[in-house]
Amino acid sequence: xxKRAFILLAVLLAALVLAWLSRHPQPSxxxxxxxxxxxxxxxxxxxxxxxxxxxxxxxHRHDESALFYAPILEGRLGDAIEVARGRGWFVxxxxxxxxxxxxxxxxxxxxxxxxGKQPYAYGIRIALAADGGAFAPPxxxxxxxxxxxxxxxxxxxxxxxxGLVWLxxxxxxxxxxxxxxxxxxxxxxRRGRLxxxxxxxxxxxxxxxxxxxxxxxxxxxxxxxxxxxxxxDIRLVRxxxxxxxxxxxxHPDRWQIAACPVNGPRIAVLGEGLAVAWFTAAEGRPRLxxxxxxxxxxxFATPLEIAAGDDLLxxxxxxxxxxxxxxxxxxxxxxxxxxxxLRAYGPGGIERPRETxxxxxxxxxxxxxxxxxxxxxxxxxxxxxxxxxxAIELRRLAGP
Length: 400
Prior knowledge:
Neuraminidase; mainly beta; 5-stranded antiparallel sheet; globular; 5% helix
């Protein structure tokens, strides 16, 4: 081969590689490590296609904690913005703060603070900031009592009203088993003024996370219920004409467990319908299930088994693209470590090979996160161990 032909071939191959890379962006990401402290509890938000997705996380040093968030722009994490900091926060791997930015530029953040000396006495604080400005003083959506208030999820009503759902312990008695945890909702305006509050379910699992999203018909919430006989299956609450409907069971797993499994469901918009993923160990079989409803008001089809096995920890994350692609991640345990696995489905439910994404921080890894954005692609965030301290890894797994 002549020198000129070799150069032309090299140029052609380089062009082909660049074209492939443009269609298949390579993994990129960041590591958030804190000197003399820990970074943990990542959350991803990609609610608005016209705004960049954001990562939020906690930093904890000694007895002081702080909540941060940062945008993801052109494949990289932007500058961190501090929401709040203080002492006496309730910091753990399960009940995580979150930050959301609405389509009209309002930043909504929440975290949890201790409300008493009891081990599980804590409550929710919410802070609002308009158009990138300073955060207003925080407020609480519930009475400040020495009980459990947490596992909150943000939502928005079609008229722009803000909302929050959470697990509410005001009905719990002083003795174990005396009362029941409730699922409650509060709506408030851009200034933080409470507009209304209501009980959505008067008996739910005590420490499984909630999830929520907004549809043109109104918000939808998923969570783990609790029936007599300690049956703890996944429930869903829809809205119709601005009113909350009665809870329904997504699928009757009939998981009987006399304690909270700390394994909540996740929900995503899939095409014209909804997808819900969750962990169950009904009949002693740990499994991860995925159920789809063709419209927000339709019944859910029989769930698909995504993963199974005694090493399955669950802790599911879920993301979907407008073209019908769907991703589900979860944790498997391996000794003192854990591994994040990813299942991908193409439009029409075409299954792709299972992928091991990364090693995480064992049971302290908390809940890995997934989020899809039409410009930035699919991103994942999780907690890792670095020299005995927790840090956060953020990585792009797929292009737009």
